[in-house]
């Protein structure tokens, strides 16, 4: 009896599955959303009201945010557009955050407590130039507090209260570039210092009330300036001359300009080129020379003297007034795995106010920036805290000798993503550990039953929600049966590789790329892309999977590349090598060696390709397929696509047997006067296609499924600009489907009066792309499906039953495929940032397009909506096949936003990866924020839903078993009594 | 003449397997051909399960009868069988004369019985026809779309003739007689049931569940391998 009950119980335990569908209470169970801000450029502390300790930061991802100093949480955040880079941040009137962005053309004020925008002003700009924001602290003009802004050749004074432009000064004619705005205390006259053509120093004395020029002085400096400037006091600045070997002190006392030259060789011996560092220190400046940082004190008469010298890798903050005319600054330097934070007085460098030593994770690299802030302790002494930005873009707050909080801001700049499996569960770790006891398990299910029968009290509802979030051990670090738990590997612009858990998005490990060779030129390579290097599944199961990170020493394309192999389970670098040649393209080949290492070809600028891994086994595998490997390059600027074929080993030139020369095979040249390449796309190489046939009501179509097919979109050069900048007659969009083996153009489609940008997705035998229709003033989607005509005669059932067909025989692109296409276009109401498509393990499940909309959300659109077979009045048979009646525009169904209430700010890409369960796919979207969810495009047809009431089922089974037993006993009795009758 | 329950078991098993094997082979023809959806296979297995239940119930009945009787004495008249006679006839009793007396009477009786049996056999042989008409009507009612009802009817229409064909021998067993020619009724019975089967298959085809279309055979074919491989794209910046 016991076994009878537990057998089904065991069965259901083993099939406990979480699935995706979205009711309000299901949000946050399978999905997670993380908010980031990016690498901090400026930080302004705000401690006026002691209760609200906040810091305002602006970042390289064009984010302005207010962070809590206690926990590092985001109070509020605004992500400006990608072209709206922030140039300066300040606080005005003690309640507004002022940001200057878009090269000095946009000035905005945000309310400090809640981040609401108070006003926005667009400023005149004539030409791109350096911009400058100056928020004078105590400048008051007729109850107004002007903000001085320079940008694009114009100097503006803007009211801090309402953003009105008080006055405007045009400097475009002279080519005057403002470097500093200085305001002597207690005066309404401001001094504006700048250079004309970096050779003439000009000082304007401007009345801040009216903008009238009170006085103007200029003086030509014969050698010219380098442009770097450090203001040391209200009437003095120090600049470097154009040779970077002489420091020039510019004094402008009483409206007079004086130069005082001090060669750096007078300050330090054997000086090379110098560099003025950015921190602003009072009466002092920091200069980087000979890989040392020297502090130069500026005397009363412009006399310079060296007061201190520190190692090269020291980061400093601006100086900040502490008590009694004293100014202090913070400096941070490394020593082994520790960092030293020191706060010193500017005037007395020997007087160290604070010295702290903090253990620092090696994976964070060097300190890049320090922002210091002081506060008054309860014993009236000064306390200091420092916000530091590390090489891996992380942001940390140091206070009282400890890291109070840290933020991994590198994840705001993800550049490449791949997924990896978790390790297999070891023996002894069982499901029971997650579910505690059978009693608790039953209790949980009874609760769920109550919930589904609407008997649950509010407390029960809360308990059910908690259970759901905790359920099924989704955060475990082992592989699960359904493949729901995975690692997302994300390569970031900082050169740091992160492994995120799909369950809750936590960082499992992170690794900063560094070159082992420690050559001075290439200590920190920047990662370009990420590839699956070794995915053990059949043999070599004992090996850990690994990924290949291809990096480059410098941003230049001819710079030597670096390969780094990283173990996915441990996050440790297995090996790394400077490969000694440049990297322009990486091609994963469809061949693996006996240890399941994938063969990769890396092309360099010379036109050679190099084979990796460099083993003789890999070489023999490659040589077997030598004739069948091709590569192509897209030269967008010239409008040329070239195809290459392997020619021979380049042993004639170098002794490297893993290097091969190539020969140009074909070129496709687009006429430069009428067409410009704006987008190319190929299928994802790991996509699985289930079948080659497509049933078209009664007819049978054969898909043309080829990996060697490229989608190319070109626009007329006039139409390459902004949308609406050309008339419909001037612009046209042409798309091509090109075979990348032979260079044959399989299909060409022209859209007159249409314009880019083109966002496309290529899967199986179809391409869907998005562009702007100038005539209709609407965005459009077009679908193109490619079918193989040459296989179409394979329709005899008997031949197919007996297997007398050549449908599965390997095909070659040289067999001249006869293709035909079907296409259709639809309007779409939204602008699109990126498009992806769901991918599943076997490719059986129907597909959804994942559209990253302009509102930074992801919309799931069934592929059936972009089916070229749609007609206005589909027949009964077509309806049965699921063909939707044709409409002119694609619907946007609010419920199909997979991001539901979240926004993936600054959305840049969407990555999908299959899970082991055929119905389900992982979706990971990245931008400034990260978002992950699991989708089931055709619903979870192969698993029970999370809501499935196991308790009800269990009760039913028990009741049935009991009933069977009772009736059996009764029937036995009856039979016996009948026999005795 | 004691029949133990154990003695019947092998026979029972045999009858079960005898019944089991042909339907498996008959259905086996259909299995690969059907593009089986989940619901389809479910209903099939359900109908199978039900029929097996029926069979079991039948055999169980027999078995219970067998098990209920631990021993039996046969009182039937064995006098007609001379070889089994071990007791001499009483004096003055002539067996031969009695047989001769009754012979005319019994022959007449036997003829009547044979006629009756033949008549009954013909009735049984024609019985599937009614069934056939009813099935046709039900199928017409069920329509041509695939849903639970139409699938259920189609499979019962397939199952009934098959089970009937399996048990042809059994059905005609009561009418077995040396004098009764059962071949024709059997043939008619077979033909009618085959007709019913054909009707079921035709229905299956109209529902679109028979793999008679090319797409049924290529849908599982993966795309062909490609000989060449190419990679590349934009140059890394």
From TrEMBL, chain A:
Residues 22-409 form the EMC1 first beta-propeller domain. It is found in: Endoplasmic reticulum membrane. This is ER membrane protein complex subunit 1. It is a single-pass type I membrane protein. It comes from the Eukaryota. Belongs to the EMC1 family. Residues 1-21 form the signal peptide. GO terms for cellular component: EMC complex. It comes from Capsella rubella. The chain crosses the membrane at residues 948-971. InterPro entries: Beta-prop_EMC1_1st, EMC1, EMC1_C, PQQ_b-propeller_rpt, Quinoprotein_ADH-like_sf, WD40/YVTN_repeat-like_dom_sf. Component of the ER membrane protein complex (EMC). GO terms for biological process: protein folding in endoplasmic reticulum.
UniProtKB/TrEMBL annotation, chain B:
Coiled coil: none annotated. Keywords: Endoplasmic reticulum, Membrane, Transmembrane, Transmembrane helix. It is found in: Endoplasmic reticulum membrane. Residues 81-110 are annotated as: Disordered. It comes from the Eukaryota. Its main location: endoplasmic reticulum. The chain crosses the membrane at residues 137-162, 182-202. It is a multi-pass membrane protein. One of its GO terms (cellular component) is endoplasmic reticulum membrane. Pfam families: EMC4. Belongs to the EMC4 family. This is ER membrane protein complex subunit 4. It comes from Capsella rubella.
């Amino acid at each position: 009896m016991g076994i009878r009950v537990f057998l089904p119980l065991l069965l259901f335990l083993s099939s406990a599955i979480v699935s995706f569908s979205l009711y309000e209470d299901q949000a946050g169970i399978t999905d997670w959303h993380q908010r980031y801000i990016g690498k901090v450029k400026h930080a302004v502390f705000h401690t006026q009201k002691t209760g609200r300790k906040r810091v305002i930061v602006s970042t390289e991802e064009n984010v302005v945010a207010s962070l809590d100093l206690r926990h590092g949480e985001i109070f509020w955040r605004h992500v400006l557009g990608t072209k709206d880079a922030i140039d300066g941040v300040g606080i005005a009137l003690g309640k507004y955050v002022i940001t200057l962005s878009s090269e000095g053309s946009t000035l905005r004020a945000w309310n400090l407590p809640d981040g609401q925008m108070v006003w926005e002003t667009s400023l005149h700009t004539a030409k791109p130039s350096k911009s400058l924001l100056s928020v004078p602290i105590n400048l008051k003009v007729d109850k107004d507090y002007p903000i001085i802004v320079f940008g694009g050749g114009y100097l503006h004074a803007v009211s801090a209260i309402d953003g009105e432009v008080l006055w405007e000064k045009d400097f475009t004619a002279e080519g005057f570039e403002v470097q500093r705005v200085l305001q002597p205390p207690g005066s309404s006259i401001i001094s504006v210092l700048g250079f004309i053509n970096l050779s003439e120093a000009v000082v304007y004395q401007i009345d801040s009330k009216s903008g009238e020029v009170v006085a103007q002085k200029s003086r030509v400096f014969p050698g010219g300036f380098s442009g770097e400037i450090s203001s040391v006091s209200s009437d003095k600045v120090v600049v470097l001359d154009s040779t970077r070997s002489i420091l020039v002190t510019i004094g402008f006392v009483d409206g007079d300009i004086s130069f005082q030259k001090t060669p750096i060789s007078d300050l330090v011996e054997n000086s090379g080129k110098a560099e003025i560092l950015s921190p602003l220190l009072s009466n002092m400046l920091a200069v980087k020379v000979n890989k040392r940082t020297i502090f130069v004190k500026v005397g009363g008469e412009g006399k310079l003297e060296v007061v201190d010298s520190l190692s090269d890798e020291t980061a400093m903050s601006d100086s900040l007034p502490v008590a009694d005319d004293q100014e202090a600054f913070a400096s941070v330097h490394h020593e082994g795995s520790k960092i030293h934070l020191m706060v010193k007085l500017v005037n007395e460098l020997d007087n160290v106010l604070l010295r702290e030593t903090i253990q620092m994770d090696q994976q964070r690299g060097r300190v890049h920036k320090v922002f210091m802030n002081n506060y008054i302790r309860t014993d009236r002494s000064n306390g200091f805290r420092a916000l530091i930005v590390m090489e891996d873009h992380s942001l940390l707050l140091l206070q009282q000798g400890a890291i109070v909080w840290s933020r991994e801001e590198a994840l705001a700049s993800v550049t490449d993503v791949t997924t990896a499996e978790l390790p297999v569960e070891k023996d002894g770790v069982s499901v029971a550990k997650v579910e505690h006891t059978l009693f608790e398990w039953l209790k949980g299910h009874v609760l769920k039953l109550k919930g589904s029968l609407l008997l649950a009290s509010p407390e029960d509802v809360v308990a059910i929600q908690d259970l759901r979030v905790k359920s099924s051990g989704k955060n475990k670090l082992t592989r699960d049966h359904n493949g729901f738990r995975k690692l997302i590997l994300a390569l970031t612009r900082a050169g740091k590789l992160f492994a995120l858990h799909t369950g809750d998005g936590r960082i499992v490990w992170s690794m900063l790329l560094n070159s082992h060779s420690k050559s001075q030129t290439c200590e920190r390579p920047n990662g370009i892309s990420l590839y699956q290097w070794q995915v053990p599944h059949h043999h070599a199961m004992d090996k850990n999977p690994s990924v290949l990170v291809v990096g480059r020493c410098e941003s230049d394309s001819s710079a030597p590349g670096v390969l780094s192999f990283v173990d996915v389970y441990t996050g440790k670098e297995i090996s790394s090598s400077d490969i000694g040649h440049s990297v322009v393209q990486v091609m994963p080949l469809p061949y693996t060696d006996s240890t399941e290492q994938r063969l990769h070809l890396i092309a360099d600028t010379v036109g050679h390709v190099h084979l990796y891994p460099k083993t003789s086994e890999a070489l023999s595998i490659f040589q077997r397929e030598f004739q069948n490997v091709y590569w192509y390059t897209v030269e967008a600027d010239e409008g040329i696509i070239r195809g290459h074929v392997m020619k021979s080993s380049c042993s004639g030139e170098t002794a490297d047997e893993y290097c091969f020369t190539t020969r140009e095979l074909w070129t496709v040249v687009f006429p430069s006067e009428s067409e410009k390449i704006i987008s190319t796309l190929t299928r994802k190489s790991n996509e699985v296609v289930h079948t080659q046939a497509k049933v078209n009501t009664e007819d049978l179509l054969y898909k043309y499924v080829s990996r060697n097919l490229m989608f190319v979109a070109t626009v007329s050069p006039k139409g390459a600009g902004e949308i609406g900048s050309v008339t419909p007659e001037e612009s046209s969009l042409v798309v091509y489907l090109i075979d990348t083996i032979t260079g044959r153009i399989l299909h060409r489609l022209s859209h007159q009066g249409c314009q880019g940008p083109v966002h496309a997705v290529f899967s199986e035998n179809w391409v869907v792309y998005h562009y702007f229709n100038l005539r209709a003033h609407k965005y459009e989607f077009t679908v193109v499906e490619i079918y193989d005509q040459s296989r179409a005669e394979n329709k005899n059932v008997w031949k197919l039953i007996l297997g007398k067909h050549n449908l599965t025989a390997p095909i070659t692109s040289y067999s001249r495929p006869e293709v035909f296409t079907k296409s259709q276009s639809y309007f779409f109401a939204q602008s699109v940032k990126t498009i992806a498509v769901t991918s599943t393990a076997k490719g059986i499940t129907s597909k959804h397009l994942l559209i990253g909309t302009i509102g930074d959300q992801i919309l799931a659109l069934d592929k059936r909506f972009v089916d070229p077979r749609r007609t206005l009045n589909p027949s009964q048979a077509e309806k049965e096949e699921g063909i939707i009646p044709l409409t002119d525009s694609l619907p946007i169904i609010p419920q199909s936003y997979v991001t539901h209430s979240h926004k993936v700010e600054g959305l840049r890409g969407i990555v999908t990866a299959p899970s082991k369960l055929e119905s389900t796919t992982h979706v990971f979207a990245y931008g400034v924020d990260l978002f992950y969810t699991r989708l089931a495009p055709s619903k979870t047809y192969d698993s029970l839903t999370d809501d499935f009431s196991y308790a009800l089922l269990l009760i039913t089974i028990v009741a049935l078993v009991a009933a069977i037993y009772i009736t059996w006993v009764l029937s036995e009795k009856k039979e016996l009594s009948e026999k005795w009758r | 003449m004691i029949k133990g329950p154990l003695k019947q078991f092998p026979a029972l098993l045999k009858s079960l397997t005898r019944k089991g094997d042909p339907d498996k082979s008959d259905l086996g023809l259909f299995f690969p051909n059907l593009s089986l959806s989940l619901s389809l296979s479910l209903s099939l297995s359900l109908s199978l399960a039900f029929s097996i239940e029926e069979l079991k119930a039948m055999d169980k009945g027999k078995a219970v009868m067998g098990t209920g009787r631990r021993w039996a004495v046969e009182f039937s008249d064995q006098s007609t069988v001379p070889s089994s006679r071990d007791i001499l006839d009483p004096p003055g009793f002539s067996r031969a004369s009695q047989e001769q007396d009754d012979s005319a009477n019994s022959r007449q009786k036997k003829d009547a019985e044979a006629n009756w049996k033949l008549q009954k056999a013909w009735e049984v042989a024609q019985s599937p026809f009614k069934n056939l008409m009813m099935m046709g009507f039900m199928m017409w009612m069920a329509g041509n779309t695939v849903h639970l009802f139409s699938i259920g009817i189609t499979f019962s229409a397939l199952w009934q003739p098959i089970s009937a064909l399996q048990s042809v021998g059994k059905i005609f067993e009561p009418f077995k007689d040396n004098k009764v020619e059962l071949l024709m009724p059997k043939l008619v019975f077979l033909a009618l049931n085959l007709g019913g089967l054909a009707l079921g298959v035709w229905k299956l085809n109209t529902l679109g569940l028979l793999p008679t279309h090319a797409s049924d055979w290529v849908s599982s074919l993966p795309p062909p391998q490609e000989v060449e491989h190419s990679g590349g794209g934009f140059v890394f910046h």
